[in-house]
């Protein structure tokens, strides 16, 4: 964002919107200097001035290049018979959006780092041009194609077969509405076809291990589950930073609904948002702390939250989301063991009683 005086004496404030187009705001020719300064202050408030920043690594927000710590095999502790719809997991919005400036960038970690940090839901946007699928966020090319994403997931699952990865795939910055054949071609070229979960049905954890579950956000025959079958809250539009309050309210309400919601349906909550005067990084810096506090307050409640999808998540908040599932699985195992132990004790006592009666009768 920059401001200068135009040839007509107007104050000209210009910058790039989310799609990379330059936009201008003019003041009137007779606007007093005080009014111009107030306008600049307003632009600072809504988040379009003051772009320079240093990398930040907080418990809730991280835009550095590497996670604070990794958790690559956390799903190994989930019972095989637990439906995936009951798993609470962290996700990344616009997973591959690492380039293009502040209006395009939603993550700072590579795909490999995200997966090893514990992310299990990926949001992948492909531009379709004559059968080629490049990765885009709006006009911003992300220096990757769909094959790179598939190879990255396959490599990860090959190294950690206890895990599963859910991947939403949708078309971005092209309007062919016909990416099915290209997606199939990339899958056949870059990964083993057996890597995919080939059903609309929600799998159990045991069925999902080692699998890529495509959440199909495009038309065509089934490649996996349908993205629209999820219960989704994605109120992404945050016009200015003044609207962060409304964004958080949407996140809060959906997270509150998840524990009592349909247990056979996967819940997906996006904490990410952006707008002309509120770029993704600025929104995440304000929403992620509220999400962190919300999770912290519920750590002892043992609730299903579904998928929590974030911009610039930090390792500690990822761990908090993971812990909801691990504690539930641990409690389930303890409950089973307790029932087994009680039953075993009852059988032992019954057997001893019978033997004592037989001994007395003799």
Helix content: 25-40%
Structural class: alpha/beta
Distance from N terminus to C terminus (CA atoms, Å) equals: 99 Å
Largest sheet: 10 strands, mixed
Strand residues, percent: 15-25%
Task: Give structural notes.
- With 362 residues, the protein is an alpha/beta fold.
- Helices cover 36% and strands 18% of the residues.
- It contains eight helices and 13 strands.
- The strands form two sheets. Strands 4, 5, 6, 7, 8, 9, 10, 11, 12 and 13 form a ten-stranded mixed beta sheet that branches. A three-stranded antiparallel beta sheet has the order 1-2-3, with no helix packed on it.
- Strand 5 and strand 6 form a beta hairpin.
- Helix 2 runs parallel beside helix 3 (146-159) and helix 3 (146-159) packs across helix 4 (180-190).
- The longest helix is centred in the last third of the chain and has 47 residues, at 315-361.
- It is globular.
- The N and C termini lie far apart (99 Å).
- Residues 1-30, 43-52 and 336-342 have low confidence and may be disordered.
């Amino acid at each position: 964002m920059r401001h200068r005086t135009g040839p007509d004496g107007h104050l000209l404030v210009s910058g790039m919107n989310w799609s990379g187009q330059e936009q201008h705001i003019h003041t009137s020719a007779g606007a007093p200097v005080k009014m111009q300064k107030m306008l600049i202050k307003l632009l600072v408030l809504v988040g379009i001035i003051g772009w320079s920043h240093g990398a930040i690594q907080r418990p809730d927000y991280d835009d550095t290049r590497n996670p604070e710590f990794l958790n690559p095999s956390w799903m190994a502790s989930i019972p095989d018979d637990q439906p995936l719809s009951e798993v609470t997991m962290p996700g990344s919005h616009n997973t591959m959006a690492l380039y293009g400036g502040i209006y395009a960038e939603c993550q700072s970690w590579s795909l490999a780092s995200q997966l090893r940090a514990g992310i299990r839901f990926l949001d992948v946007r492909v531009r379709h041009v004559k059968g080629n699928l490049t990765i885009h966020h709006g006009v911003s090319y992300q220096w990757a194609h769909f094959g790179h994403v598939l190879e990255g997931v396959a490599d990860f699952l090959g190294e950690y077969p206890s895990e599963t990865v859910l991947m939403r795939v949708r078309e971005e910055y092209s309007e062919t509405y016909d990416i099915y054949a290209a997606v199939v071609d990339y899958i056949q070229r870059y990964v083993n076809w057996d890597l995919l979960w080939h059903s609309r049905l929600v799998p159990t954890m045991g069925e999902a291990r080692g699998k890529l579950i495509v959440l199909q956000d495009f038309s065509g025959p089934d490649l996996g589950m349908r993205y629209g079958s999820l219960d989704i809250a994605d109120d992404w539009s945050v016009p200015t930073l003044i609207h962060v309050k409304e964004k958080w309210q949407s996140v809060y309400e959906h997270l509150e609904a998840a524990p009592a919601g349909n247990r056979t349906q996967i819940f997906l909550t996006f904490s990410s948002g952006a707008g002309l005067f509120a770029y993704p990084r600025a929104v995440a810096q304000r929403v992620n702390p509220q999400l962190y506090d919300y999770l912290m307050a519920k750590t002892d409640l043992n609730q299903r939250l579904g998928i929590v999808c974030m911009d610039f998540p930090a390792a500690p908040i990822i761990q908090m989301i993971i812990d909801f599932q691990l504690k539930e699985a641990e409690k389930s195992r303890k409950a089973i063991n307790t029932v087994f132990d009680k039953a075993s004790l009852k059988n032992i006592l019954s057997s001893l009683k019978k033997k004592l009666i037989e001994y007395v009768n003799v």
